[in-house]
Amino acid sequence: MRRRDFLRNSLPAAAVLPAVVDGYSIKAFAADSPLLQALMNPTTETDHVLVIVQLSGGNDGLNMVIPVSNYSGYYNARSNVAIAESKILKLDGYEHTGLHPAMTGLQKMYNDGKLNIVQAVGYPSPNFSHFRATDIWMSGSASDEVVSTGWAGRYLNTEYPNYPEGYPNETMPDPLAIQIGSITSLALQGPAMNMAMGITNPTSFYNLINNVVDPAPDNPMGYELTYIRTIAKQTNRFAERIVAAASKVPQQAAYPQDNYLADQLKIVARLVKGGLKTRIYMVGMGGFDTHSSQAESSDTSVGTHARLLKTLSDAIKAFTDDCQFLGVQDRVMGLTFSEFGRRIKSNSSMGTDHGAAAPMFIFGKQTIPGVTGNNPSIPTGASVQDNIPFQYDFRSVYATILEKWFCVPSATIETVLFRNFQRLNIVNDAACKGTPVDDPNQTAGEQLITNYPNPFTTTTTIQYKTRGGHTLVQIIDMLGRVIRTLVDADLRTTGTFTVTFDSGALPTGVYYARLQNEAKQQVRPMLKVR
Amino acid sequence: MLKQDRSIREKLTLMWADHFGTETNTIRNAHFIYKHNDLLRKDCLGNFRKMVKDVTIDPGMLIYLNGYLNEATAPDENYARELMELYTLGKGPTVAYTEPDVRTAASVLTGWRINPDTLEVYFDAAKHDIKSKTFSSYYNNTVIPGRAGADGALETDDLISMLFAKQETSKYICRCIYRWFVYYKIDAAAEANVITPLAIIFRSNNYEIKPVLEALFKSEHFFDVLNQGCLIKSPVDHVIGCMREFNVLFPPVADYGDAYGMWSFIRSFMQAMGQNIGDPPDVSGWPAYYQEPSFHEIWITHDTLPKRNQFTDLMTWNGYTRNEKTIIIDAIAFTKTLPNPGDPNKLVEDALSVIYRVPVSEAAIQSIKQSILLSGQTQDYYWTNAWNGYLSDPGNMQAQTIISNRLKSLYQYLMNLSEYQLS
């Protein structure tokens, strides 16, 4: 693991002070103002941030990123919802592909060199169920594997292997991941626990967006409920940090009104600028399940899907502008995904049914701009069965982000994603070319279980720390099945012990060593190689 | 607790264990500890006066409050004081017994002993103080005549009669019951309209407990919406309640090695949350039942609330494994017991009716349904299809995981909300 010292270089130099700090005139503040203190003590310890934008429902990628160079094939397959050729937004210097007319914001970003469009992202044997496909994208599994942890959660588990024992701490005082706007999702589920904090979680302090929390009634029940909620807020170990981070950022660039996604991204920008060391933010919007009336028959460039894409495009544009305004543009990278694209051929109710591969957007200043891949091929006389085949596996995008944005070594990436995937040229990896130093987070907190060697070929020694009492060490495979119990005993002593795991004829791949000691548990990923 | 049928027995047993608080760490004799608990269970719904007598000469209590050392030449006031202050009269404003009354009561109680060989309690007349005992004006200057020989033991009954002649005893016990089952705050109206009439019922039924509970549980007051959902669950309510709501399967009792391991684990979790059954902090029982002004709120602290969440999280996702047996919430099995699990609205609503004691708004139900069961989708039938897909092919790991991940998230989330802490 590499330490991201390069970040220090990308921050505003102290020499800029005291005339202007991040656009705020210093004269406006007394020297001891908390705001000034906060700004003068910039976020040197912060790191790269990934913002994952989930588009729930299955986004019609073919009407979002339009194959201009095969317009007739496109039009013939879905004439009732096809965007008129004249209305398609053009991309500077790339005539093969255009954007939906509602996406002027993303068009501008492309032309400004802050957007990469990855064509036809999917996976072999696509699944057409919302739930299953969502789980596949979030878990980073193959179509025929059922993995109950999330790809981002597994990544965070390798970065902060001892979490939550000994967290928060000086190295990592903040939530590892924050999910805004809903309950923490599978993507952030680590091998032992969810690695994220949902901040519309009712136990949190911060009534962010559309947070449905029933008001406490004016009776004894309401009185006690208020008491418990108060303690719950105070107990949230990250509450203070988040309030403090948010309060350091009094001014942000403009965001569109009545834009649910923009509301969420605005909070992300604020927390990033405010100095949270949180790595991953997850935001999202729904409504992409456009089986009918996705466009107006009189003008296919308006309607439900157009409104959704405008919301998406405006929000990402505003967020990117705000990151620039706040001076964090070199630290923030985003991606969009949906559980699947939609069918090539439209249906007769002005809609499209569940499909397969679809484009992803990679956005941010450190994106390598352009269009990755070719327009999807559209068969002549497309039938209802025809789907867009994938050009890039979605896990290639994940692997690329992990390697080039988070500087994760390839053996670790293989542990996180279970296999080796092609890397794409979508992210500027200059940041990951520094001198490798062990990441301090690897040893932060309290390490209860570890193994060596790792990766291993046949046997590996598992070292575990028990506080006495019942102690359990299990080996779990990537699908979550217990395949070996190495220790299951009531121990009268505390201390550190070792046990050998002989993997015998088990296939190569990822295994987890799980320690359960009374109420505590910790899980360590291990990689078996040839 | 885990296995009982629908019954008030264990709840009352725990209430009396708190009322007549003893600590296993002090008694340190498994036989006596068992006997004490057994006594409370047998008397829990019986006659309170009989229970006071039984407890007074219970070997566990005699050890715990030094009654077995109480003798004419060296009186020990410990039990006599708690008998008045904690077990019968309480500390209400009209309670005005005196320090000499405590000493006098102690001398009444001299002579009870435990045979170290048979572990039986007996009365040793030679250790009994045979003087006549005169109490203060609070007790109307009652005189308990001193008795020699075996009859000395009867003085204990005279003492209990004297305590039960005071109306404060009935009122105090009714307040304890009220706090256990309704709410800890007893305002003037509740005192006048609930406690006083209940105390009359208690007295006129010769201190039978059942008529008092019947009157309380059938009262409009008990069912008044103002008095619902305002009890903060004790750790026992939280842990045992969770296990029972989800019908978590434990190893069979006959397999006692495994069963005890699991019981011990959940007991230790309740201990971490502040309630170690069998071992309240002191003779007063758990502060949540008597400590003004916070009472039940004492259960919820910055330390214990996260542990409550940790427990329900653990039980939802990984469970606890020991000796190759696992106790875990079976989210799918629980969901199958609901009347209409294919309808995500009904599923959330019906699950809430099992695990919540407080109402939840339609808006919150919709929000929870959409973000968890529908994974952000807007159409209910996606859940219905997923559920039916599982039912039609329960062995299919994909179909099962789709359902179980969402159900686990749902139940974990519901148990993390503050509302779940109320009863």
Report the portion of residues of chain B in β strands. Answer: under 5%
Which segments of chain B are poorly predicted (pLDDT under 50) over 5 or more consecutive residues?
none
Query: Mind describing the biggest β-sheet of chain B?
Result: 2 strands, antiparallel
The low-confidence parts of chain A are 1-46, 200-211
Number of helices of chain A: 13
General shape of chain A: globular
Sheet-strand content of chain A, in percent, reads 15-25%
What integer value in Å does the Rg of chain B equal?
26 Å
How many angstroms separate the termini of chain A? Answer: 22 Å
**Would you count the extended β strands of chain A for me?**
21
Helix content of chain A: 10-25%
Oligomer: heterodimer
Structural class of chain B: mainly alpha
List the helices and strands and how they pair.
The complex is a heterodimer of chains A (530) and B (423).
Chain A lengths: L5 H5 L9 E2 L2 E2 L8 H7 L8 E7 L5 H4 E2 L4 H7 L11 E3 L2 E6 L4 H8 L3 E8 L7 H10 L11 H9 L17 E3 L16 E3 L21 H16 L3 H9 L12 H14 L6 E6 L18 H23 L5 E7 L19 E6 L6 E3 L19 E2 H12 L4 H8 L31 E4 L6 E8 L2 E9 L4 E10 L3 E8 L6 E9 L2 E9 L2
Parallel strand pairs in A: 3-10, 3-11, 7-13, 7-14, 8-9, 8-10
Antiparallel strand pairs in A: 1-2, 4-6, 5-6, 7-12, 11-12, 15-16, 16-19, 17-18, 17-20, 20-21
Helix pairs in contact in A: 5-11, 7-13, 10-11, 12-13
Chain B lengths: L8 H11 L4 H4 L2 H14 L4 H9 L2 H6 L13 H11 L10 H10 L3 E3 L6 E3 L9 E2 L8 E2 L9 H12 L1 H15 L6 H17 L4 H9 L2 H4 L11 H11 L10 H17 L31 H14 L2 E3 L2 E3 L3 H6 L7 H12 L6 H12 L6 H13 L4 H20 L7
Antiparallel strand pairs in B: 1-2, 3-4, 5-6
